[in-house]
Amino acid sequence: MVRRYVADDVDAVMRDLTDRGLLVTVDHLGEEVADRTQADHEVRACLAMLERLPEGADLSVKLTALGLRLSEQLALDNAASVCEAAAGRGLTVTLDAEEYDTVEAQMSIHSTLRKEHAEVGVVVQAYLRDAVERCKKLEGSRVRLCKGAYSAPEALAHSSAREIDRSYVRCLKVLMEGAGYPMVATHDPRLIEIASALAVLHGRDSTAFEYQMLYGVRPAEQERLAGLGARMRVYVPYGDDWYAYLMRRLAERPANLAFFLRSLVSRG
């Protein structure tokens, strides 16, 4: 089960995906480092991975893995080093989603990074009640929109699937209307259809936005979208610290558990 959703040989997985016309973003699993030595180790892991990424690839980084819990300045400096290296190879970096209490720092760091690295992306989680306002503030940015897999207090987050879906669509409308680059991270067929319709409505061609899905989930749909000419990027996690990743996906939201169990018995 782990190998289905977490790359055992990340280089082989990237080759296979790119050979099939899919784009990739990779995530070195692990977050919440305890000291600067661990943060430095994560930076080195990011720099090493940038040397191995194929053309057009993206690197997803978690700011807590770069030292955010220790110091916002430390995380900023480390993220800037990663962005600089990525730019030198024509690759992109996306600041990945984390716990709700990291969002303000994430947005602040993203804003600062964009002054030197305009292509750095950031994730907005639709389950948070302020997601639409955040999308508006990110005008012109690369934004990965996902539903969100972390827990948060009820005052800050939508709790029902219907509320989250409505928030996702409102965010999609803002992003598709804007001047940025939407990254539509969802496996939900209805939301994919809505994203496609909004792209047509706002005159976006296949190069002006992309779909994103998790490695191992709905691979047939990933290939179908790529076959239609869409930019389809696969989120590929790798590394030893896979337990927290899978438990977050499978346990924090009951709907995710049912979804992953269905995908486990069907390659579609």
From TrEMBL:
List UniProt keywords, sorted A-Z: FAD, Flavoprotein, Nucleotide-binding, Oxidoreductase, Proline metabolism
Names of required cofactors: FAD
The pathway this protein participates in, as annotated, is:
Amino-acid degradation; L-proline degradation into L-glutamate; L-glutamate from L-proline: step 1/2
Q: Where is the Proline dehydrogenase domain?
A: 14-259
EC category name = oxidoreductase
**What broad taxonomic lineage does this protein's source fall under?**
Bacteria, Bacillati, Actinomycetota, Actinomycetes, Streptosporangiales
The Enzyme Commission number assigned here is: 1.5.5.2
The protein's organism comes out as Nonomuraea recticatena
Reaction(s) catalysed (UniProt annotation): L-proline + a quinone = (S)-1-pyrroline-5-carboxylate + a quinol + H(+)
Stated name of the protein: proline dehydrogenase
Q: Which SUPFAM superfamilies match?
A: FAD-linked oxidoreductase
Name the InterPro entries for this protein. Answer: FAD-linked_oxidoreductase-like (IPR029041), PRODH_bac_arc (IPR008219), Proline_DH_dom (IPR002872), Proline_oxidase (IPR015659)
